[in-house]
Design brief:
Low-confidence stretches: 53-57, 61-65, 203-213
Oligomer: single chain
Strand content: 15-25%
Shape: elongated
Radius of gyration: 56 Å
Number of strands: 15
Strand order of the largest sheet: 1-12-7-2-3-4-13
Distance between the termini: 151 Å
Helix content: 25-40%
Largest sheet: 7 strands, mixed
Mean pLDDT: 77
Order of helices and strands: HHHHHEEEEEEHEHEEEEHHHHEHEEEH
Structural class: alpha+beta
Length: 454
């Protein structure tokens, strides 16, 4: 391997100083270096010359002006004074050569390639109508504004709460006055919903009826079928029936005298084959109170009546009747050519008129009349132990449909109105077609022709 050449460095010769130097050539106008700088260089001969900064290395303009900064974009809606147009800037005189440019001097440059933003009507406006970018109304002022829809919704909510509260009060008030009877049996359920409505013939001073005892003067069977319309069947109180759990037979209302409401329900269930779901009982004197509570009703009868037993005095036609007249109208039978059948028709008329008057707008919008009516109804009614004022309301709506012009109402097929029963008593004998009548009632297949006609 070759060895590198060796050599000895030369001895460093000391550089001459400025002392003893002679000036040659033209005198220079440049300033001599200060002695302090010369001494610092002599003291540290290894110190080199410091490089210039990047700023010093940039070439200067011949005019001495500084390089212009990038144009600053200002808002079109700034409150400060706008800059001069570019045409004026171009016409401005240039700075003198060698003079320092002012700090904020405007340089003749080309206009920017974009135009300042200007608002477009309909697009650069906020929802309060002020241009975008400008402050609109204070937030507090916006919060104080109320939309008409919100005001209407709040008013409706208050009305609904008042109506619901008033309805709950009436419901509680009526339930507190409603009577209850142990009436329902344990029979198997049947299709639909069945109400037994009974008017008890409690003798009082309002009438002078020779019949003695506590009996069911009015018996109605209201059935709401699952597939057909509601139907109201009037059961003549003198209908010949077989008493349950007995070998005896007799009039239908006799079962009420023997065993009360529960025995009557049992008897009707055996007669019709339908399970009684609800029981409602009204004292016949209650008809007077209900009629007066609704302000009287208009009743119609096409013949004159002067009945000493019921106290009814009637001239053929339609008349506005008070409670006393309505009670006598619904009880009169000795002066009726159809007897008990004619009476059931008049009783349905009284019930229909009371319901229509109770549901009239003039009463529904009067809170005082509503309270009076609910109290009058509850005081004269009794329901089964599971019943309530809601039971009465459901029955009332079904009655309105059944008694209406297109409703199904009437008596079952009858074979005889004067059949001699046990002991020679006059009874109402149902026709053999009655068995099919009860099946059609249960299945919702009854028609107007299914009822008895006289």
């Amino acid at each position: 391997m070759n060895q590198p050449p060796s050599f000895e460095p030369r001895k460093r010769v000391q550089r001459p100083s400025v002392e003893g130097a002679h000036e040659v050539g033209r005198p220079s106008h440049a300033a001599r270096p200060r002695a302090r700088s010369a001494r610092r260089a002599a003291a540290d001969p290894d110190q080199g010359v410091q490089p210039r900064s990047s700023a010093d290395s940039q070439p200067r303009s011949s005019t001495g002006a500084r390089r212009p900064s990038a144009p600053v974009r200002r808002s079109a809606f700034d409150d400060r004074a706008p800059e001069r147009p570019y045409a004026e800037q171009a016409a401005a005189p240039a700075a003198a050569p060698g003079a320092a440019a002012p700090v904020n001097a405007t340089v003749n440059t080309a206009p920017p390639a974009y135009a300042p933003h200007r608002p477009v009507p309909g697009h650069d406006e906020d929802r309060y109508g002020a241009p975008a970018g400008q402050p609109g109304e204070p937030p507090a002022a916006r919060a104080r504004r109320r939309h008409p829809g919100r005001i209407l919704a709040s008013a409706l909510a208050i009305i609904v709460l008042l109506v619901l509260g008033w309805g709950y009060y009436l419901y509680s008030y009526g339930n507190g006055k409603l009577g209850h009877e142990a009436a329902l049996s344990s029979a198997h359920d049947t299709a639909g919903e069945t109400f037994l409505i009974v008017g008890s013939d409690e003798r009082g001073e309002a009438v002078n009826d020779p019949t003695e005892g506590h009996r069911a003067d009015t018996i109605m069977l209201l059935h709401k079928s699952e597939t057909g319309p509601a139907a109201l069947v009037s059961l003549p109180r003198d209908t010949l029936v077989h008493f349950p759990d007995s070998k005896a037979s007799g009039k239908l209302n006799g079962s009420f005298s023997f065993g009360g409401a529960e025995y009557l329900v049992h008897t009707v269930e055996e007669l019709t084959g339908l399970k009684i779901d609800h029981y409602i009982q009204i004292g016949m004197d209650g008809v007077k109170n209900l009629t007066d509570a609704v302000g009287g009703v208009e009743l119609c009868l096409d013949y004159d009546v002067s009945d000493e037993y019921s106290g009814l005095q009637w001239t053929a036609g339609c008349h506005h009747s008070d409670g006393t007249t309505a009670l006598a109208f619904s009880r009169m039978r000795y002066s009726d050519p159809l007897g008990d059948i004619g009476r059931t028709e008049r009783q349905r008329q009284v019930v229909s008129k009371i319901i229509d008057k109770a549901l009239s707008p003039s009463l529904l919008v009067n809170p005082l009349k509503q309270r009076s009516l609910v109290g009058s109804v509850a005081e004269v009614l009794s329901v089964d132990t599971d019943g309530s004022l809601m039971t009465v309301a459901k029955a009332g709506l079904a009655l309105r449909d059944a008694i209406g012009p297109d409703g199904l109402k009437g008596a079952p097929p009858i074979a005889s109105l004067n059949h001699r029963g046990p002991g020679g008593a006059s009874t109402v004998l149902l026709a053999p077609e009655a068995d099919q009548f009860w099946l059609d009632l249960r299945d919702g297949k009854l028609t107007k022709d299914s009822f008895a006609s006289f």
